[in-house]
Structure formats: C-alpha cells, structure tokens
Model the fold of this input.
Amino acid sequence: MDGKMRATAPGRTEAFLPSPTVQNHAANLSLLSDGTLACVWFGGTMEGMGDISIYMSRLTPGSDVWSVPEKMTDDAQKSEQNPLLFNAPDGKVWLLYTSQTSGHQDGAVVKRRISDDDGRTFGEVSVLCDIPGTFVRQPIIVNGSGAWLLPVFRCIGISGTRWSGDIDTAAVLISTDAGASWAIHDVRDSIGAVHMNIVPLGGDEMVALYRNRFSEQVLRSRSHDGGRSWSAPEATDLPNNNSSVQAVRTSDGRIAIVYNHANASMSADRRLSLYDEIEGDEAETISAAVQLSGRKAVWGVPRAPLCLAFSSDAGETFGNRIDLETGDGFCLTNNSKDGLNREFSYPSILATTDGVIHVAFTYFRRAIKYIRLSSGAF
Done:
C-alpha cells in the first residue's frame, strides 16, 4: 500500500492510501484551497480501542502518490473516530472528530483542531460539543444566510445497558457566529436515522440522506428553511445495511450517492453489536434494550457491494447504479489483524467542477482505498 495511483479501467484510477496501522476506517475526503485532495480517517488495532487515532494523507496537485499519513490525534485513553474536514469561509480548515471510551458511543463528545495555513498544520485540541453521545460523520454545510450546519447523530444510552444504537436520533448543530457557539436542533421522528448527510438544492431548499439503524432502506428528509427544521425521515428506494452512506451534488445537478446495496432482508447474518468483540457478553442488556425501545438495531448485514447511484429528482428515486467493489462483505467481526473482515464500507464522495467523482472507503478494515472516476466512467 504505497499510495501510488494506478489506472485499472478506462476513466478509473485507484490507490490504497499508506497507513502505519492494521485497522483503517471511516474516510472523509476534502478539497483544500490549493487543489490538494485530503483524506482523513481513523486507524489503530480495532474500533473502540484506546490506540484508535485520526490520520490524514494528501494528494497534491500534479502528484500521483498519496503522502505518508500524519497522525492528527493521540489520546491514549480515548478512541478517536469519524473525522471530517471543513473549509471555513474565512480560509481556515477545521478537523472534527469524535472521542469516546471503549465502545461507549453514548459518552462520546466532538472535538476539533483548526488550521490557519490551509491544512498544513493544526492548532490545539478543543471541545466543540460536550453533549454526551454526540457523533459526527458528514461535512459541515454553509447555508445561504451564512449559518454553519453540522449534521450529527445522538447515540442515546438506556440506563443499565450498554449502547447498541437502538434509539439513536438525528440532529443539526447550527452556528450563526462562525463556529464560536452552536445550538442543537433535533430532527423530528428520527429514531434509527443516523449519519445525516445534507445536500443543498439551491436557495433554502435542502435534502438529507441517512443511514438506517434497522437495516432497511436509506432514509431521506427535506428542509425548506436553510436547514433549521426538517421533515421526518422517510424510506427511499435504496437499501441500507446499517452502514454509512454519503451523497453530493454533481456539476450537472444530480445527486450522486455511494452506499452498500444490501439490507437485512437480503442476509441472515447478524452480530450482537458493533463493539461485541471488546465489550463482552451483552445478552442480558440487549434483552432489556428491546423491551424499552421496541426495535433493535441490526448489525452484521454484509457490507457489499459498494455502489454508486444517481438521482435527478432531489433524492426521491435513484438509478444508473454502478458497482464499485463486489465481494461477500463479511462484517461479523471488526478483526483486521487476522484479516477476517471483508467489508467495503463508510464511503466518502466528492464531485469536482471538472466532472470527476472522487470516492474513498474502507477496504476490509485494513486500508482506505481511493477511486477517481472521470465523466466517461459513470
């Protein structure tokens, strides 16, 4: 995994980003102001462990090799996860990520570092949101009035049980003072709707797409007031396996989404929870959670194939599906050391003005893979 870009098909080039860690997951791409393509992700031994930290690699203009990754965080007591980069209107670059102890996502907070030199160096770590259980995954959006919208999901624990995602909800953190302060706005009727991904449509119109904790369909909601309030999430025609999706508006006005074309109806594979390998026996607490929440988050559905699809009606329907990676997507374990996990997951997508689509994603939890598609390839 030398970071070298290689052509693999007409209009398609690929690279495996270099990494010093055995597990690599949850990539997010960003285009910096000088044209550098940056990718951040988390790496370590296994998700939830104290050695999980944030890493960043760059592909500079004219280069065909991704840089040796820089370690961006290093708290030995915390699992630091789900990073994202934000190019603020004032030219600063923000790095956001979550910080938690072990598998306790309901105790996570959101932290940040800020760069004054276009992402070359970053300042000290500070806390952006200290509401326990607040998680990020998707980029900040600036609406037409200049407000910053940070979509979050709220990992809600049930007293006496370990977190397992059964009653997680969606919300938006909104700042009207360039990130100095934030107010939280919950998305109504959003139990099970997480990883909210906001896509501006023009003016005050926005659409959001969501991961579904119950492994049914990708969910969708609308905002008509610049992202302050949202309709209740409803099912789209795309399946979802309780794994991340990401969508973006392309230069021709369509919405492009990267996702796993799979859900619980397509597989009987199940695991107790995301962190069952590090949290121990959860049988009794799961029973209690089911009694309290009514529905149980579904984990373990294969994370494959990884697909690209397009919508011309603001995300109401999707078509023109392309399989980017195919395989069995086995994810009943997060074990990377022994090569047991075979998922293609947690995609990030960018659409640049030259008509190119950029995708980065988890490959077997061993590496972050990057794919560049020219307009003739999709």
